[in-house]
Design goal:
The protein is an alpha/beta fold. It contains eleven helices and nine strands. The structure holds S-adenosylmethionine. The site of S-adenosylmethionine has 23 residues, from strand 1, helix 3 and strand 3.
């Protein structure tokens, strides 16, 4: 770790500020500063960028990011009870931490950040996937972020990095891997959190690619993939009937077998299909 921050241990912070975790806020806190520093080290070159953190809570990961040398951290927290604890951290790191009280789904952080920007967060489970999808589908590419280092339930993390042929392969894998390089960098058991959730968690690190991996129109790709995986057990020619009347020809144009199932089609195949559909 970098500079010692002279702040009290997180269990004491929780006691002092009466921060009992609330399920409705998706609160499962990380109280081990060695662990939060380890997560912070997965983010990349912290000293060269501003970091956006969603849901700092009592500030375990925030302290990890600052101690590991983040140039600046902008934290958005919905639960006002956490603000006094976060003020103590910004006092210990003058000029380095800005906290916005608000709902991350309703707050535009960009006015408060200077590029390059990385996102690091132990996400609230109830909004995690929605935020990820928003970050992966901005109107313009490349996006505002260089990388995302995010904690998810293990099952969601596996869907993000899934490969063709696996049961977890679907829309999330295609969305993430089309525009980013995604990998699981840490696994955490329930006991790492207070209170422990029912399931294990994983940290996923996504690096934005400068351009999508294969050419395709984002809206067409999204439509094709949604239809294909909505009926994932059906053959593509049946699942994609609503996409185009001559879908069998489009599938053949894309080099795919109409009798294949969505689960077997690699990302490159879906992009070829999106191009073949858009060409008509
Ligand atoms: N980062 C802290 C840690 O690792 O100990 C807390 C993580 S906890 C899983 C999720 C945090 O997100 C909580 O502090 C919760 O209050 C906050 N939160 C929940 N919904 C939110 C939202 N819509 N916008 C911003 N923060 C939210």
């Amino acid at each position: 770790m970098g500079t010692i921050d002279n702040l009290p241990p997180l269990r004491e912070v929780i006691r002092t500020h009466d921060l009992q975790a609330r399920k409705s806020m998706g609160q499962n806190f990380l109280l081990d500063l060695n662990l939060t520093a380890k997560i912070a080290r997965q983010v990349g070159d912290l000293g060269a960028c501003d970091v956006l953190e969603i849901g700092p809570g009592p500030g375990g990961l925030t302290r990890g990011l600052l101690a590991e040398g983040a140039r600046r951290v902008l934290a958005i927290e919905k639960d006002a009870r956490c603000l006094p604890a976060l003020t103590e951290i910004s006092d210990a790191w003058p000029g380095k931490l800005q906290v916005i009280e608000g709902d991350a789904l309703q707050t535009d952080p960009l006015a408060h950040l200077t590029p390059p920007i990385r996102v690091a967060s132990n996400l609230p489970y109830n909004v995690g996937t929605e935020l990820l999808v928003r970050w992966l589908t901005p109107p313009e590419w490349p996006p505002f972020w260089q990388s995302l280092t995010l904690m998810f339930q293990r099952e969601v993390a596996e869907r993000i990095v899934a490969q063709p042929g696996s049961k977890t392969y679907g829309r999330l894998a295609i969305l993430a891997q089309w525009r980013a390089e995604a990998r699981i960098v840490m696994q955490l058991p329930p006991e790492a959190f207070t209170p422990p959730p029912k399931v294990s968690s994983s940290v996923v690190h996504l690096n934005a690619l400068p351009a999508p991996r294969y050419e395709a129109d984002a809206a067409v790709l999204s439509r094709v993939v949604a239809a294909a995986f909505n009926q994932r057990r059906k053959m593509l020619r049946a699942a994609l009937k609503g996409i185009a009347p001559d879908i069998e020809d489009r599938l053949l144009d894309a080099g795919l077998k109409p009798t294949d199932r969505a689960e077997q089609v690699p990302l490159e195949g879906f992009c070829a299909l999106a191009r073949a559909v858009a060409a008509k």
